[in-house]
Amino acid sequence: MSDLMLSKRAKMIGDSPTLKINALARAMKKEGKPLIHLGGGEPVFPAPLSAVEAIIKKAESRKIKYSPSSGTPELKAAVAQYTLQNYGREAGPQNIIVSAGAKQALFNFLLAAVQEGDEVVFPAPYWVSYPEMVKMAGATPVIVRPPKGKLQVSFEDVAAAVTDKTKAVLLNSPNNPSGLIFGADFISRVVRLTEEKNIFLLMDDIYHKLVFDGQTVPNPYEFAGNAQHLVIVNGVSKLYGLTGLRIGWAVSENKELIAAMGRMQAQSTSCNSDLSETAAAAALTGDQGCIDELRTLLQQHRDVLMNELAQIPHVNVQKPQGTFYSFGDFSYYNPDSQALAQYLLEKALVAVVPGAAFGMDGHLRISFCADEESIVQGVRRIKQALENISKKEG
Length: 394
Ligand SMILES: Cc1ncc(COP(=O)(O)O)c(C=O)c1O
What we know:
By secondary structure, this protein is an alpha/beta fold. The chain has 13 helices and 12 strands. It folds into 2 domains: 3-46 and 289-393, Aspartate Aminotransferase, domain 1, CATH 3.90.1150.10; 49-285, Aspartate Aminotransferase, domain 2 (3-Layer(aba) Sandwich). It has helices at residues 8-12, 17-30, 49-61, 73-87, 101-113, 129-136, 155-161, 184-196, 255-266, 274-285, 289-309, 337-348, 372-393; strands spanning 36-37, 96-99, 119-123, 140-144, 166-172, 200-204, 230-235, 248-252, 325-329, 350-351, 353-354, 363-367. The site of pyridoxal-5'-phosphate (PLP) has 13 residues, from helix 5.
């Protein structure tokens, strides 16, 4: 199709680099190449039985219909229970909207809250979709960059980026890709800042229970004077390994905002998948032991990955406190992370995601949600391929 036929918006929006890597990895495996995929964003965990049984029961009822646009009462009740248990806050049906993944919840928020001329402030490294989503909503992403050699910004850096045009601050903790948690002092000050400036604080909490070494993430509600500014996004993709259900949600005491997000959804996708909502409600209300199992396994995988990465000279990596990603500085070998990731894909047959996609070139995101053998062999292959670069240069 001629480029002339496309909207300005379409021309402005890039591909999702992580989804592209997944597609490439799938294609290479299909061709029979012994690829190791350390670029993924989903746990290799089977779906919880509660969700599977609910899907079967629902399918057998032969009633798979449109559901209420902003979520079924059962799923909203399950989200309310989750919110009370994890954040200590009551949430009614008007405070909750269920969407097709946390991704659509974030997008609904942006469509409902920002417009041309507005700015949305978020720190680097950031999840790949944030800048593109903000642009799709017509606003301008304002990226706060950490000092050289660091993976986290300070409160002062965030505060300095907030202007009259800022409509929201967006935080993801623990963070994809760094795996680091924003501490209580930082969160409390950002909560107060957003209240003072009368703007939103959008918390992408999709990994909030996948944190290691007995740590927890600070609860922003604890610091809120006026929780109307706070919007929490979460979902079943990461905690329950149910990426394929496509169920996430947003919770806010700001009912007008939730209603506006509901209008965006009702006029675009009508409603969520009936089957998926049933399964998500079952996962949320079923046995929660699967989250502890996943967290324990991921912590072991993190330790294995850290051990292996420590064998590669000149790589600087901070131990992830949560998620299933590490974000090491590989710039000694090649400051161009896209070229380095391409080299590793071709020469080592290992898929990783270039740091440039997360706003920090020179880094590579290596996931530890794969099985242990893949992590060990994958990093050993990377080490070998990097040694070849050093030899060529040396
Ligand atoms: C930080 C972050 N937010 C949101 C999402 C999207 O999650 P979902 O599958 O619920 O749309 C992801 C998925 O990778 C993510 O890493």
